[in-house]
Amino acid sequence: MPSTSNQRVHTHLFRPCRVGQPTMKNRMVMSPLTRCRADDNHVPTPIMTDYYSSRASMGMIISEALMVQPNYSGFAYEPGLYSAEQVKAWRTITDAVHSRGGLMAAQLYHAGRATTPANLTSKGLVPMGPSVVGISPKADVCIAQWSRDGKAQAYPQRIHAMTPTEIGAVVKAFTCAARNALAAGFDAVEIHAGGGYLLDSFLRDAANKRTDEYGGSMENRSRFLLEVVDAVAAAIQPDRVGVRLTPLDTGNGEEDDKPQELTTYVCQQLDARSIAFVDIVRGDTRTNVTGKTEGWVRRSFSGVVLASHGYTSMDEAEQAIADGTVDAVVFGVPAISNPDLVWRVLTHTPLNRADPSTFFTRGSEGYIDYPICEPHSFSNPRVMANTTAYSEGDSSRHSSCKRLTPMKMPAKERPHFAVSQPLLLGATTMKNRLVMGPLPRQRCDAQQCPTAMMEAYYARRASYGLIISEPCEVQPSYHTYVQGAAISTKAQVLAWRRITDAVHKEGGLMYCQLHHGGRTTLLCNTGNGQDRRAMGPTTQGIPANYRCPAVFADDGKHRPYYSEVAKLSPEALKWIVKLYVAAAKNAIVAGFDGVEIHAGGGYLIDQFLRKCSNTRDDAYGGSPAGRCRLLEKLSTPCLLPLDDGASVCAYPQRTLQGDEGHRSRGDGGDCCDAHGGAQDCLHYCGERQ
């Protein structure tokens, strides 16, 4: 069992890691651990919700093995994922895990020849595999807790050799289970191709004696697995798919004459399919011998590598990630007995000892009764800011992490657990509660396109729970800040895409702040020397005592804003709404996770909200509802393409650019209540990649 006895800061274990679509907030993964707590119909039970949700602090939870086909049970009471009732029960569990900021993958498996007649509840069924060769009693036996008749027994010595038609049916079963996994709220799936179960028995030559296209050569023996991977990836996207391999494990009588060559070939094929991760068991769980199989995977697979078995200490796990040998470490028995394993590693708290006698029993003992030390308010820290310093790097094989000296704090200083907790934000999860605010830095080029230095700037700040970009102008050629950012042209969108890709690569989230300066625009900032007038809710400009700083102006002169501007007509306001909608769509194409509508700071939307600048007597002025109308009209369509990724930024009590509201509590509250639902929408500059 990994130890936490010393006081080393495990910097690398608490770096984020992007695994396909989701991002793990740390690199401690809960292993798929069959616990036999489902009911007679393989439906998850209520205690399983407590069990999994209490472990949500792990970077990712991989579920116990889930049956993809009825009747073929290897553990008597393991759960399944082939019925509506099972999907509904799993949804309760994944919702509970997500409510605590966790990620969860479903492990999909077929027991194959590793089952007993007592577990085949439909008449006429027999265990099946690649050949008629069953599991020798010298190799493995079924313990009493894995059989419905409660008797320890040998597995059948002779089984049914699957036909190509039956193989195709199992491929369809895996595909259906993968779709069910997404319906049940899982973030990803792991295809179990190890452990001596069905897919593994096709891979390895000890069990596979076939002479057709599914036997003989490594290529043929790998065919079944790759057909499953192809079908599942087509159903749910490759970046939600992982595969577990156990090339040295002799469980259920499996062996192969050339395990390294087989693993290398399989991983090369998986790499060509761009799946998210490979989960490798490093040795033989029966003999407790550890190999170096993670190196076989690393050299032939460019995605995320998870590894388990044989890590004797947290220091060893930390070093494996620091060296780039693996991207994350999978914990089995320690995760059984320590629901708060992450907390214990962070605080160097001794681990609970596991009770193996309760691993496969059906009650709550040894399942949801292990002592928990973490505070109730603690869940899923990305990192403890008071004990760890770190730098982010690519999670691929080329990653590197600069060694940093841990930050020191006074002995009695209270740890900042609250800011380290995750927060659900629409359709995404912030890994902590520290947000980088929208900060104009004026580093764009003359066409308002983000520059290379901005990519480095934002990527280095990906450790924040959320980055909100600097204000991005929605109307071409109207600059509030010289060399400020915009998101209205294809070149700007492509430049932002490079930045968001860099942030996501480091495990970050990023929103785009949509901005229109309104009456704060100077003639020298409107571009191309054209005579464009500043605009606002009325002809009233900005009082003379509010001047534009020289650094904001294209001509570098400190000057007052315009005292008179163009009043926006209702028709012009419809056009303004279209500009915001186009910018929101462009933000999604550019890879942003959402948008923030800038409704503060004395800029256009704020100018409509405040009485001092909005003296209109039409539908866009007067009452708080009227002054909020523009924000309401642009908020609803802007939300359509965003899938729960939108926010509104307002400063109801600040006086900027000459804007000062009356009754700011009512003004601010009324304007932030205008959100609509999410729908699909065509993009302005192109399809999202």
TrEMBL record:
<dbReference type="Pfam" id="PF00724">
    <property type="entry name" value="Oxidored_FMN"/>
</dbReference>
<dbReference type="GO" id="GO:0016628">
    <property type="term" value="F:oxidoreductase activity, acting on the CH-CH group of donors, NAD or NADP as acceptor"/>
</dbReference>
<dbReference type="InterPro" id="IPR045247">
    <property type="entry name" value="Oye-like"/>
</dbReference>
<comment type="similarity">
    <text>Belongs to the NADH:flavin oxidoreductase/NADH oxidase family.</text>
</comment>
<dbReference type="InterPro" id="IPR001155">
    <property type="entry name" value="OxRdtase_FMN_N"/>
</dbReference>
<keyword id="KW-0560">Oxidoreductase</keyword>
<feature type="domain" description="NADH:flavin oxidoreductase/NADH oxidase N-terminal">
    <location>
        <begin position="13"/>
        <end position="351"/>
    </location>
</feature>
<protein>
    <submittedName>
        <fullName>NADH:flavin oxidoreductase/NADH oxidase, putative</fullName>
    </submittedName>
</protein>
<feature type="domain" description="NADH:flavin oxidoreductase/NADH oxidase N-terminal">
    <location>
        <begin position="421"/>
        <end position="630"/>
    </location>
</feature>
<dbReference type="InterPro" id="IPR013785">
    <property type="entry name" value="Aldolase_TIM"/>
</dbReference>
<dbReference type="GO" id="GO:0010181">
    <property type="term" value="F:FMN binding"/>
</dbReference>
<dbReference type="GO" id="GO:0005829">
    <property type="term" value="C:cytosol"/>
</dbReference>
